[in-house]
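step=predict obj=Glycosyltransferase n=423
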Amino acid sequence: MAKILVASMPFAGHVGPMSAIAAELVRRGHEVVGYTGAKYRGRFTGAGASWLPWIKATDYDDADLAATFPEIGDGKGLRGVQANGEYILFGTAAGQVADILAGAPYDLLVTDQVALGGGIAGQALGIPWATVAVTPLSLTSRYLPPLGAPWTPATGPAGRTRDAILRGVTGAVYRRVSDPKINELRASAGLGPVRPGRLFDGIYSTDLVLAQGVPGLEYPRPDLPDHVHFVGRIAATAPLAPEAKLPSWWPELAAAGTVVHVTQGTLDTDPWDLLRPAMAALADREALVVITTGGADPATLGPLPANARAAAFLPYDLMLPLVDVMITNGGWGGVLAGIEAGVPLVVAGDSLDKPEVARRVAWSGAGLDLRTGKPKHELVGRAVDRVLADESFRTRADELGAALRAAGGTNRASDLIEGLLKP
């Protein structure tokens, strides 16, 4: 069996799929080393892997990024995105390279695509390397607008010309801003420069890319490389949570006529952004509103309407089959979990990759994009009413959910990873 390093940025949404892969590789008999921050050590050691800590890389708590990187502030807006890139993505990458090289040898690396140092270390070691896309694919394509453009792919000549021009403009920006930083990291590991003007294409493996999702949730890409595989949702295959851990009000879900779930994930957890507007929008509806705070004390929500229930976390494998509509800020893992369960979505995302997720959900037909991360309660209410009234959203979510399940998930991802190992 092989010695495999699984590298994950210490964010909850990244650790989930990466630790699921680690657990499956351990189950198959491999020696697995999990490389992540101290907060998530137990997610890997609990799966039977050993742990390589962040030593040279600056560790942090994803629930309080500003404590380690005060420049990030609340992490929102253009300033937050730029600070995340400078201090977390690029700022920790050199340390990641040093940590991974110091822990070598390995037979194979599996790294989330945002862990820039993981891919560079894999190339420096000259061993097989797999990338897991924990967010929507950011690979550039001549058929798509550039990453971050606030629209879906064009269908007519004028739109395609617009997208081509903008790709040229952003390519020039990448050559001046991101390429030098990536190339400096690569040079320090003895590697040559990346292909210019392609943003983060150089951080994706040329051996294997495991893309979470399915083609129906991703824009058509006729130029997608053959080594990119859609594998559905990568998630733990552990037994369902015992009922002893469920809240006392849990039986109300099965008895409710309509259940609406509201989540802001685990990163942007200010309840005034989405949770409280959703509570206000649905307070007078004949629906049970189930809110998760992403780890924060539910008391931070203040008094709940009579039809609302709240918890820090709830087991999605048990809850989502009982949900009629999911309101989310667009975390890719949560969106995939909802669609896999056939739940239509209302998405309010405006930070990091979340607007990209929201656009894909609306484009797929499985839900609505509110085009803001801080919607007014009236907007939330109208969106929920529309999704409940139009059966096409549920039908499309069911179709995509079936496709996600058929794609193989964690087992298929692990099969492909093992395929990189020498016989």
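step=describe
Residues 157-176 form the longest helix (20 residues).
step=end
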